[in-house]
Amino acid sequence: MRPMGRRAAIMAAMATAAGAASGTAWGQAGEAWPSRPVRIIVPSAPGGGADFTARVFGRFLERPGLPVIIENRPGAGAVIGTDAAKSMPADGHNFVLATNSTHAANPFLFKQLPYDPVRDFAMVGLFGSFQSILIVDARSPHQSVADIVAAARATRGGLFFGYYSSSSRVPSELLRAATGIELTGVSYRNVTQILTDLRGGDVAFAFVDALSAAPALQEGSGLRPVATSAPRRDPRRPELPAVAETVPGFAMEGWMGLAAPAATPPALLARANAAMAQAVATPEVRKALEDQGLTPRSLGLEEAKDFLAADTARWREWVRIAGIQPE
């Protein structure tokens, strides 16, 4: 990832946490882990929230002679990279940055998904959950969700919104379904393109995951946050209302985690899970994730498996309500 101001400073701070990784709990019993370079496939472009999360964890985990390789493989709604990850060696050193899109939503968004989140992967754990932020151009007349709803009703054909993943498409479709307004989605390859077109007025709004939205919401970015998809206001940004304050019951959150090829030995999954838990508990890592909009959260192996099953059921219902047909 290229230096990106505040993000570059955060990544530099991870060197301290990385130095502390040697000799930690996941390598104290039996053969040390990791014992060779670790590879994490990120099924999205560099610079986004998933990429940032993977690199923060990588900096925490790596130590001299044992680098963590972050491999970005974006495309097709994160399908390309995730599908490639299922065929990696199941040796406890190969992982994919898993999200609600790759492992919970995609089974209901694609007619022929080339991978099965349960059959082809083992969930390792969670880094945390995130909200999506409804964003408009800073010059937009839309100051609130109510303004967007009113504008859509007053505009023949409704408004256009941008999306780049299920996390960014489904909230808009749920808003349409809940209010009865007309909205048309415009698909983008990545969040950077959406932010550019928001500034140019080509789309009226977009829901962007909080991690990807963080740098875009800094002063002078030319963009303005309107609301959060979380069920209530975030204490870290109390001035930002929840969509639910205008559309009762509206709520949608995503998550970031790690998955491994299904045949990975349970003992190695447990060590990777322990490393994730220790990373999330480390102040430098925790602050880095929080500063980027993630609410840190760690789960054990069985808890992560149960969480995925429950979230898959949630996404099945959200996709149904949104009226999205598999492609």
Question: How does the major sheet shape up?
Answer: 10 strands, mixed
| Helix percentage | 25-40%
How many individual helices? 11
CA-atom Rg in angstroms: 20 Å
Order of helices and strands: HEHEHEHEHEHEHEHEEHHEH
Shape: globular
C-alpha end-to-end distance: 31 Å
What is the number of strand segments?
Answer: 10
Mean residue pLDDT: 89
Task: Please give the oligomerization state of what you see.
Answer: single chain
Strand content: 15-25%
Category from helices, strands and their pairing: alpha/beta
- Poorly predicted runs of 5 or more residues: none
Task: Give an overview of the whole structure.
With 327 residues, this protein is α/β, with parallel strands linked by helices. 39% of the residues lie in helices and 20% in strands.
Explain the layout of strands and helices.
Elements: H1 6-19, E1 38-42, H2 49-61, E2 68-72, H3 79-85, E3 94-99, H4 100-109, E4 121-137, H5 145-154, E5 159-163, H6 166-179, E6 183-187, H7 191-200, E7 205-209, H8 210-213, E8 223-228, E9 253-261, H9 266-281, H10 283-291, E10 294-296, H11 301-322
Parallel strand pairs: 1-2, 1-3, 5-6, 5-7
Antiparallel strand pairs: 3-9, 4-7, 4-8, 4-9, 4-10
Helix pairs in contact: 1-2, 4-11, 6-11
